[in-house]
Amino acid sequence: MRDAKTLAERLRERGISRRGFMKFCAATASMMALPPLMIPRIAAALEQARRPSVIWLSFQECTGCTESLTRSHAPTVEGLIFDHISLDYHHTLQAAAGDAAEQAREAAMKENWGKYLLVVDGSIPLKDDGIYSTIAGQTNLAMLKAVAAGAAAIISVGTCAAFGGLPMANPNPTGAAPVSAIISDKPIVNVSGCPPIPIVITGVLAHFLTFGRLPELDTLGRPKVFFGNSIHDRCYRRAFYERGQFAETFDDEGARKGWCLFKLGCKGPITYNACATAKWNDGTSFPIEAGHGCIGCSEPSFWDKGGFYQALSKGTYGSAEGIALAAGVGAAVGVAAALGARSRQAEADSKEEK
Amino acid sequence: MTLLDIARGPALEWSLIIFAAGSLWRLVGALLVRRMTDLSEPRSHSTVAGGMRTVFTRMWPRREFYKQTLFGTVAGYAMHIGLAVVVFLFTPHILFIDSMFGISWPGISNNLVMFAGTVTVAALVALLIRRLTTPLLKMISSADDYISWVMTLLPVLTGMLAYAHLGGPYQTVLAVHILTVEAMLIWFPFGKLFHAVLWIPSRAQMGAAFQRRGVKA
Amino acid sequence: MSVDMETFKQFAQMLPHLGENAQVTQRSDAERVGSAKEQFLRKLDNRMAIELESCIHCGHCASACHFYTGTEDPKYVPIRKLDLLKRVYRREVSPLRWLHRLYTDDITVKDLQEWQELVYDSCTECGRCSMVCPMGINIASMVNVMRQGMARADLMPRELMGMEQEQGEHESLFGVGPEQMQGAIAKLQATGIDIPLNKDRADILVTTSVIDLILFTDGLIATAKVMNHLGVNWTLRSDGYEAANFGLLSGCERVQRKSSARLIAAAKACGARTVIIPECGHAYPSMRWEAANDHKQRLAFEVLSISEFLGRELKSGRLRLNKLGRQRKVTFHDPCKIARHSGVIDEPRWVLDALGVDFREVDSGKELNWCCGGGAGVFLINSASDLRQKAFQIKMGQVAKTGADSVVTACGSCRLNFLNGKMRAGWDKEVESLVEMVAEALPGN
Fold it and tell me: Would the pLDDT of A158 be above 50?
């Protein structure tokens, strides 16, 4: 079952030149903001890397994350790296089904206990003992706990696994929770996004293969190298924001001129991801280039931050009725205060008459 | 729930509730303190016009008082105008107001807003230095003055930091900015910031009282 | 000329002894504080509430105050003079009182003692600070409430206490009661001046003041001359002649009411439709604005200050005057209580215009005029002597700038203060009375 070939050998087999491989290493180094000096080291590490065992668990998810990683139009180095890992369990991709699939997972766990990487996509329902999502009769919760116990590290792929995502959105009927809410004794990397950018996943893998450890993380557990800047920071429309030039509708003059989409609900300023630099569809573009604001999909509870088309500055301030009621109560207290003062003053008046 | 969610959700709601309730409490409570009927024969009956006139004439001190009032007045105006520009002409703020009251108007260039913010901060600092170094101002200053100063400065400063993406992750700074505005809203009814409401009735009634006696105040 | 400096100096020598007759009641500190607070409570109304709520501590009022400007001592910032009233307001009346009580100290006797100087010695209730306040706070009117609180606590300058007690108990001032008044009038009548005393029916009740009876008699004579010249049915009554109201000046409401009641009764007794207030600053607002409220009853007569009366008579054409000539370079000092507090601003100028003198307006005049520093009884307070003189420097500078040779005014208290300042500073300006100038210019005089 184990394939002893190194990545370099596999790449050459697939007709990827040394030059193309180095280019990938340079791109990875640059994405991860590593100095150029590191390129040969990445190359050397990747060339010598043996296939690590990876177990991929899909819970409450839509398969979009898998789609994002696999649906490349042409074979890419990222795709090949993905091929290079030993994906021992992935119920969407693997050929085996039913008990055979579960046996493969258990075998891989046993063989690589303590060394395999666990990739999770989808959130885990906790409500009612987690009965809302089961695989082979086992709840997601139980499976996660069992598999995580022998993992070297966990990569939570996609916003559902990283932060709860759509299943956790208000009112969260299944009591969905992210991996980090359940597992606390393993290193976890959150590769958020709905879906995440393919190179971000391979970048994390490359980092793990190169340095034997996970990359530096931000406060939300995301690799800093990919999530260090906001979309807004790197947005090519930023200049229009500075000048106060905003598209008011999707078909107005401003929209045609490519002005800032802030007023149309762009969440770029509070969203951290590499979209603006890594881009999508083989580097073609990212949503803002297509004329749509960022929806903030790599941030926790992005579903619940008001509408996608509601400007970021808008508050969720409760109801006008509540404030009117407060004003009424305030006025009533004011009246009471004044009446109290009047009676106190009347008392002073009566003392004078004596 | 992130800090930003708290700032934009429950904290905003509660600060507005306290702001509304406190403001009405103070205004109604002061207006309803007992009124004395003046039985003397008025020299002029156009007290409403006199009151309104004073509301406007007191916007600038008379030449005779320039020596001690000009600095405070100019710096005060710089601060107030700068603040008004920042609060009412910065596009995200307009959108915020729009989301609450359904009214909006065009904003101006963010660079101009930043300039106005800088002017506001500079004027606030100048006014504070003056307050701390002028014996007569030190004499009449209370904690209220300093708290109100901080409550005014912080939203401007944090807003500028958020805009410039300084001082931490944007959404944290933005959350802090919104929280400082909320702190200001909560303080508003209880400190001297409330002069933003009282200046009109206060000037008007004095103008009316002087008008009643035939004096243009 | 109006008054010679020798007579004035004799009068001035009497002043340091004014407080000697004051009867100070012995009361506990708690009682004093309690009485002061109750008085504040009685007087606080929604107008004061709004104003006390609105102060932004800008300190602009200092620029208007002659005591601050004259000394540059920060303790004299006008708004600070209201601190005790403000504290009682905050603790007892303010809508936020439950909050304010947490950090606002109650007032103590020590506070009252400290504030005595601030509301008596260093405030003439001139009201100039109200003209600069960007929030429109009427400080002077509240200083008077402060004085009322102090009066209830028996904490006022002895001089004012003595005067107030004399007026309240003996209906006299400087020992001049109704009897002495009649004697003084008899003396004037003996010189050939027709002064109708104690008429049963009169259209106009002319009032006077002890200062006019013992010092500025020319002012009283001038008034009589003008009245006679106009041929009006007027009288002076010994049961209600004293326009000065030391109840108002000292803050003692009881005496204030008693004093205004005498004038109201006298006017009623002779059926007067008009009461004329002599050249006495506070006496005018005392009758014009306070009296009706003192007695919770509208007045049945009109109250005019003598300068207001003269201006109106000139305007209506009933009074014509000779020109005194442009060689007389004069400026006019608007008494705070008559001009800024009461709106008598144009009338004295009509008079000066009719007199044909070289009239020079001061910078910052009319409703913005600088106080002479002696108003609201401050002239009589001995401990305020130096303070007053410092404030008077401003007045001297203001007058000097006009190039006038003399200062005309329409207030006995201002005149006294000018004479005193003149004496102390060796000032070369003359101090004149408006009504005396009018008498001088009467046709056929």
Answer: yes
Residue of B nearest to C136 (CA): B203
Do C433 and C219 contact (CB within 8 A), yes or no? Answer: yes
Closest CA to C131 of B54, A152, A253, B21: B54
A342: buried, middle or exposed (CB in 10 Å: 19+, 13-18, 0-12)? middle
Q: Flag whether residue C96 sits within 8 Å of chain B, measured between CB atoms.
A: yes
Would you mind telling me the total number of residues written for chain A in this entry? 354
**Closest Cα in chain C to B192:** C56
Residues in chain C: 445
Domain ranges in chain A are: 47-226, 238-353
Q: Please state whether beta strands C204-206 and C274-277 pair in parallel, antiparallel, or not at all (unpaired).
A: parallel
Q: Which residue has better confidence, A188 or A99?
A: A188
Q: Give the span between the Cα atoms of B179 and B158, in whole angstroms.
A: 10
Is residue C339 a contact partner of residue C381, using CB atoms and an 8 Å limit?
Answer: no
Residue C176, helix vs strand vs coil: strand
* Closest CB to A335 among B4, B28, B174: B28
Q: Report the gap between the CA of A228 and the closest CA in chain B (Å).
A: 9
CB C279 within 8 A of CB C347: no
Tens of pLDDT, residue by residue over C293-319, are 999 999 999 999 999 999 999 999 999
Mean residue pLDDT across chain C: 94
Topology (CATH level 3) of domain A47-226: Rossmann fold (3.40.50)
- How many angstroms separate the CA atoms of A327 and A319, rounded? 13
Dist. CA A335–CA A339, nearest whole Å: 6
C-alpha span between C101 and C18 (Å, rounded) = 41
What digits encode the pLDDT tens for the residues A281-290?
A: 878 899 999 9
Beta strands in C122-269 (DSSP E): 204-206, 234-235
Burial of A306 by CB count in 10 Å (0-12 exposed, 13-18 middle, 19+ buried)?
A: middle
pLDDT tier at A319, thresholds 50, 70, 90: confident
Gap between the Cα atoms of B199 and B178, Å rounded: 26
Token code pair at residue B195:
């002069």
- Residue C25's alpha-carbon distances to A122, A315, C118, C152, in angstroms, are 88, 65, 22, 11
- How many helices (H) and strands (E) chain B has is answered by 10, 0
Cβ contact C174:C212 at 8 Å: no
* Assembly ipTM: 0.94
For domain A238-353, is the CATH number 4.10.480.10?
Answer: yes
Nearest to A334 among C42, C92, C95 (CB): C95
